[in-house]
Amino acid sequence: MSNVVSIGSNAMTICINCTSHIQLEKDGPRKDIWYNQLCNNPQVARKETIDPVTGKKGFEGTTDLGELVLKDRKEPYCRDINDGKCKYFEQK
Q1: How far apart are CA 88 and CA 58, in angstroms?
Q2: Residue 61 to residue 9: CA distance in whole angstroms
Q3: Average pLDDT for residues 39-46, to the nearest whole number?
Q4: CA–CA separation, 12 and 29 (whole Å)
Q5: DSSP 15-79
Q6: Residue 37 has what pLDDT?
Q7: pLDDT per residue over 51-68, tens digit each?
Q8: pLDDT score recorded for residue 9
Q9: Are 70 and 59 a contacting pair, CB within 8 Å?
Q10: In this structure, are residues 56 and 43 in contact, taking their beta carbons and an 8 Å threshold?
Q11: How far apart are CA 51 and CA 46, in angstroms?
C-alpha cells in the first residue's frame, strides 16, 4: 500500500498507513471517527503536567477555540497533526 493517496494533482499522507497511528476502537460503528484516531509520534506528544485542582497527572492540550485544557492521554488526535502532508509520517 502506498504512503500517499492522490486525488487529482493533490497527494496526501494517510494516518492509518503510518507507524505512529493508534486506532482506539478497532471494530464497531465508531471506528473511523476522529476521536478514535491518535498519533503516537514522540515529536507531537503532549507535555505532562499536574492538574492544580485535583493534583492528578494529565497532559496539556487545547480546545478547538485555543483554550488550554487538561487531557487524559499524551497522544494528540490525528486530525490535529495531519493536514494531508504530515511531516511526521512513516510508512508501516
Answers
A1: 24
A2: 34
A3: 96
A4: 25
A5: GGGBTTEEES--SSTTTTSGGGEEE--GGGPPPEEE-TTT--EEEEEE-TT--EEEES-SSPBGG
A6: 96
A7: 888 899 999 988 889 888
A8: 52
A9: yes
A10: no
A11: 14
More confident residue, 17 or 6: 17
The C-alpha R_g of the chain, in whole angstroms, comes to 15
Phi then psi for residue 12, to 5 deg, are -130, 145
**Percent of the chain clearing pLDDT 90 (strictly above):** 65
Q: Which residue has the cell 497522544?
A: 75
SS3 80: helix
Q: Domain ranges for the chain, please list them.
A: 19-80
